Amino acid sequence: MARARNFYEVLGVDRDAELEQIKAAFRQLARTRHPDLFKGVARQQAELDFQEITEAYNTLLDPDRRSRYDSTLGSKGDVKEFKPAEIAKAQLIRAVNLMKNGDLSGATEAFQQAIAHDPQSARARHLYGTFLAQHSGKLDEALRQLDAAVKLDSLNPKLLFDAARVFAKANMTARATRLAETAAQLSPDDPAIEALLRQLRPAGKGR
């Protein structure tokens, strides 16, 4: 029989989580698991899930209740700990789902949480950068995130291609061309990369 999840596992935070991390985790879960988002049998399950989420949140938010609850768990080694990379992965999944559902504010927060938990995640920075370029108008921040992603994963042709497109959007043609040329070397005969290079090279002459 599977072991029941403790309140930290319910919220997806570790035993040392700060109050702000607990609040952020609850907000994200409320956006994706609130019963009003479901119908029929799925709503019934969501109601049960949300009762557990709310109980976990109310307990861990109150210092006295949290201390008493912690005493029932035993030592930290007795329960599963969530590594930062695991939390970042979960936040990234939430970010993508929120983006698909049109919750851009929630997606932004989830992307930021993912990067905060795992700053070395090229995928998180890649997705956040392209998200910013498409939805927020924050082109400078999009470029910063994509530049960091490229440094972390310089052999990913998809990442390089997406970064090249955003740098081209910012009229940084020389940088966009270099990124696209590297992507072409890593993924020869890719029609999308070849098309981007055809657009960039005439404009990039003399740069």
Total helices: the number is 11
What does the main sheet amount to?
none
Intertermini distance: 66 Å
Q: Could you tell me the mean pLDDT? A: 86
Could you please say which CATH topology of the domain at 1-82 applies here?
A: Helix Hairpins
CATH architecture of the domain at 1-82: Orthogonal Bundle
Helix content: over 70%
Order of helices and strands: HHHHHHHHHHH
Helix-strand layout with pairing:
Layout (H helix, E strand, L loop, with lengths): L6 H5 L7 H15 L6 H22 L1 H11 L10 H17 L3 H14 L4 H15 L2 H14 L4 H13 L3 H14 L4 H14 L3
Helix pairs in contact: 2-3, 3-4, 5-6, 6-7, 7-8, 7-9, 8-9, 9-10, 10-11
What labels would you give this structure?
207 residues, 11 helices
Can you walk through the features of this model?
With 207 residues, this protein is an all-alpha fold. The protein has a domain at 1-82: Helix Hairpins. The protein has eleven helices and no strands. It has helices spanning 7-11, 19-33, 40-61, 63-73, 84-100, 104-117, 122-136, 139-152, 157-169, 173-186, 191-204. The longest helix has 22 residues, at 40-61. The protein is elongated, with a radius of gyration of 21 Å. The protein starts with 6 loop residues before the first helix and ends with a helix.
In brief:
With 207 residues, the chain is mostly helical. The chain has a domain at 1-82: DnaJ domain (Helix Hairpins, Orthogonal Bundle).
